[in-house]
Design a protein that fits this description.
Blueprint: E1 9-10, E2 25-28, E3 65-68, E4 91-96, E5 101-112, E6 115-125, E7 131-135, E8 150-153, E9 162-165, E10 183-184, E11 191-202, E12 208-214, H1 222-225, E13 230-234, E14 242-251, E15 263-272, H2 277-283, E16 294-298, E17 305-306, E18 312-320, E19 327-335, E20 342-343, E21 350-352, E22 357-365, E23 371-382, E24 391-398, E25 421-422, E26 429-433, E27 441-445, E28 450-454, E29 461-468, E30 475-482, E31 487-493, E32 499-504, E33 511-512, E34 526-534, E35 542-548, E36 555-562, E37 577-581, E38 590-599, E39 610-616, E40 621-627, E41 633-639, E42 646-652, E43 657-662, E44 671-676
Parallel strand pairs: 1-23, 17-24
Antiparallel strand pairs: 2-15, 3-4, 4-15, 5-14, 6-11, 6-15, 7-8, 7-14, 8-9, 9-10, 11-12, 12-13, 16-18, 18-22, 19-21, 19-23, 20-22, 23-24, 25-28, 26-27, 27-38, 28-37, 29-34, 29-38, 30-31, 30-37, 31-32, 32-33, 34-35, 35-36, 39-40, 40-43, 41-42, 41-44
């Protein structure tokens, strides 16, 4: 069976680049974070994290905890440990751990380079307590996030240590990956005492230097700090800038968040690349205001474009931080592959007054009916003394009936799993013989890996695929459908009987709860599975599961109305990512084939068939009806002898029961047939 495919297309979310380098203070004291379900951190409102490129401290995994209680600065001269007020006042970031399962919580910053100062308060409650301030870490998913450098405190292999973690390493004390020269063992106590950390980062093409001071006796200025506790030079920042800061946790895999392994807290994090960076970090002094400086303060957001209208507008807001001179914006130009789809109706020049003056500029996106993801850049032209970096634009448009995946049948390249994100640089999956009817190639996943693809979905959607598991004694199969706020996580957990399950730590808070009533699977057999999402982005998101018999095509087993979600109930943001995973105990791996992720409601369970024929003799009209898939094109043909066929119509279905009337059917015997476009 080949699943229907439609032409590639688009939906609409726009993402703009961070504000320019040199923007000054970056402060995150965490006091405006709010613990959500299962201690998930739920955002820091705009204005409380000065210099960050987005208002929320994004939670990518639901593991890092927001905990009550400020850390109080130790007795150090000149350091300002003051916390901001607010409803969430008294919040630190923390983590409990024992087993080495790593999770990252981070947010983008303004792009900062050159000389950068950092300070933070931290404590270690236990000999195994560990935390890391991670820079520029990739956010491709959960698990180890060790591709960026970090400043670490504590470690279960080096109790109370403080040091620098080079890129590609995951701890300062792990002897398999870390050099003892990169840390100072026993630098701090592990009894919960609060410690002051000050760091100076000097990024240079010849070598980056990171200097650390731990609990300095005098922090009134740089000269008073004295000799650093540790100073290292190496290729820490090959890109020459910092554009993301995060808190990385090592925790034990315990749903109760047992802190017996030790608790690490981080608070009052401050970073600055302003000329008076040291004062900003240790004394919280605002950076100097330049004579005139143009910066982006609000980024246009295009709501998801689904169906019509197929255009959207967003507002690009700018500010003049200068105290004396006005700035004139003389134009905005669009570049990149899809520049023609973006425009502005603003009339230039646009004047931006001095001393905090602002201006709003409309940015429009029109995909011209094409479905897919689109990318462009926006260049702001002005007479300001600084240049605002190009803004990256990403927008998308989708409509019902569109398969958002590329190479979902894995037939495009017989040598690689092309167009899919594959863990391990491609080592986690490889092309194998097809298992779907008529298929030549499928994707074979090995243990510990995943394949993933992204596409924008409508509130109603479905995923459909074939799979085969060679061993069902343990976890045999795992599929996830996720969005920015929450995800569906479904597995087949093999045992003597075998059972399907869905992870839920949001509503039932039972993690893997009671088994779902789908049929068991047989090792080596091929199954067709369908996941149907309903009302995602609405008031009651839920989903249904359908499964065929072994080596069959009919969906004979089903469970409907499921409301089990991981991390959060999906909100207005559409589901985007489809992920097949062997990361969690599925050593034998499994095979998937002919995968589709389709916008709109699912096709009928029954195969394509004409379900009704009627004839109006007075009008000479024959009317036929058939079960259809919304958005898929069907051809209606007529024949007088079952040999020669004439095409009467070809159009995309608007309803699950599609109808066509032949007004030229008078006076003769005709045969009709309906064909589905592939």
């Amino acid at each position: 069976m080949k699943l229907p495919r439609s032409l590639a297309a688009a939906s609409a979310v726009a993402v703009f680049a961070a504000p320019p380098a040199g923007a000054g203070t970056v402060i995150a004291d965490f006091n405006d974070l709010f613990p959500g379900a299962m201690r998930v951190v739920d955002g820091q409102p705009e204005g409380t994290g000065i210099g960050f490129a987005s208002p929320g401290w994004e939670n990518f995994t639901g593991i890092v905890l927001a905990l009550e209680g400020d850390l109080a600065a130790p007795e150090v001269t000149g350091y300002d440990g003051t916390q901001s007020a607010g409803a969430g006042a008294g919040i630190s970031l923390g983590n409990s751990f024992g087993g080495r399962i790593r999770r990252l919580q981070s947010r983008p910053t303004v792009s900062i380079s050159g000389e950068v100062w950092l300070s933070a308060l931290f404590s270690l409650n236990g000999t195994d307590a560990e935390g890391l301030i991670r820079f520029n870490a990739s956010l491709t998913g959960g698990g180890a996030q060790s591709n960026g450098p970090a400043i670490g405190f504590g470690d279960n292999d080096a109790s109370g240590a403080v040091g620098v973690v080079p890129p590609g390493n995951d701890a300062i004390g792990n002897p398999a990956t870390a050099d003892p020269a990169h840390r100072v063992d026993g630098a701090v106590l592990t009894d919960g005492a609060v410690n002051l950390l000050i760091a100076k980062i000097e990024m240079d093409a010849a070598g980056d230097t990171i200097s650390l001071w731990v609990n300095p006796a005098d922090a009134t200025d740089e000269a008073a700090l004295g000799v650093p506790t540790l100073s290292l030079t190496g290729p820490y920042f090959p890109g020459g800038l910092i554009d993301r800061v995060g808190y990385e946790a090592v925790r034990e895999d315990d749903p109760a968040f047992d802190a017996s392994g030790g608790l690490a807290l981080l608070d009052n994090l401050k970073i600055s690349d302003a000329p008076n960076a040291y004062d900003v970090v240790v004394k919280a002094v605002p950076p100097a205001v330049p004579a005139a400086e143009l910066a982006v303060t609000a980024e246009p957001v295009f709501g998801d474009l689904v169906e019509m209208p197929a255009t959207a507008s967003g507002t690009l807001s700018v500010i003049n931080n200068g105290g004396t001179d006005a700035v004139e914006i003389t134009g905005i130009t669009f570049g990149g592959d899809d520049a023609a789809l973006f425009s502005t109706s603003a009339v230039f020049p646009v004047s931006v007054a001095a001393n905090g003056g602002t201006a709003d500029i409309a940015v429009d996106f029109d995909p011209a009916g094409a479905v897919g993801f689109f990318n462009a850049t926006a260049t702001i032209e002005s007479d300001a003394p600084n240049s605002v970096p190009d803004v990256s634009l990403t927008a998308a448009f989708t409509r019902a009936g569109v398969d958002v995946l590329v190479n979902g049948d894995f037939e495009s390249d017989g040598a690689t799993v092309t167009d899919w994100l594959v863990s391990g640089g491609g080592s986690a999956a490889a092309p194998v013989a097809g298992i779907a009817p008529g298929s030549t190639t499928a994707a074979g996943l090995v243990g510990g890996g995943f394949i993933q693809q992204t596409g924008n979905l409508t509130p109603d959607w479905y995923a459909e695929f074939f799979f085969s598991a060679p061993d069902t004694l343990e976890r045999a199969f795992n599929v996830l459908v996720s969005g920015p706020s929450g995800q569906i996580n479904i597995r087949y957990q093999g045992d003597a009987a075998g059972q399907w399950n869905a992870f839920d730590n949001v509503l039932a808070a039972d993690n893997w709860g009671g088994p779902l009533g789908l049929g068991s699977i047989t090792p080596g057999a091929t199954y067709l599975m369908r996941i149907v999402g309903r009302d995602f982005g609405g008031a009651d998101p839920h989903y249904d599961l359908f499964l065929s018999d072994a080596n069959g095509l009919a969906l004979t087993s089903r469970v409907e109305g499921i409301r089990r979600f991981q991390n959060a109930v999906p909100t207005a943001a559409r589901m985007r990512n489809l992920r097949f995973s062997t990361e969690f105990g599925n050593a034998p791996g499994f095979i998937v084939d002919d995968v589709a992720l389709v916008t709109g409601p699912p096709p009928p369970d029954a195969p394509l068939a004409i379900v009704d024929v009627s004839y109006d003799a007075d009008a000479g009209t024959a009317t036929i009806s058939w079960n259809a898939i919304v958005g898929v094109t069907y051809f209606v043909e007529r024949s007088a002898d079952l040999v020669a066929w004439d095409e009467l119509d070809d159009s995309a279905a608007d309803e699950a029961l599609e109808t066509f009337s032949d007004t030229g059917a008078s006076g003769r015997l005709f045969f009709y047939r309906v064909l589905q476009a592939e």
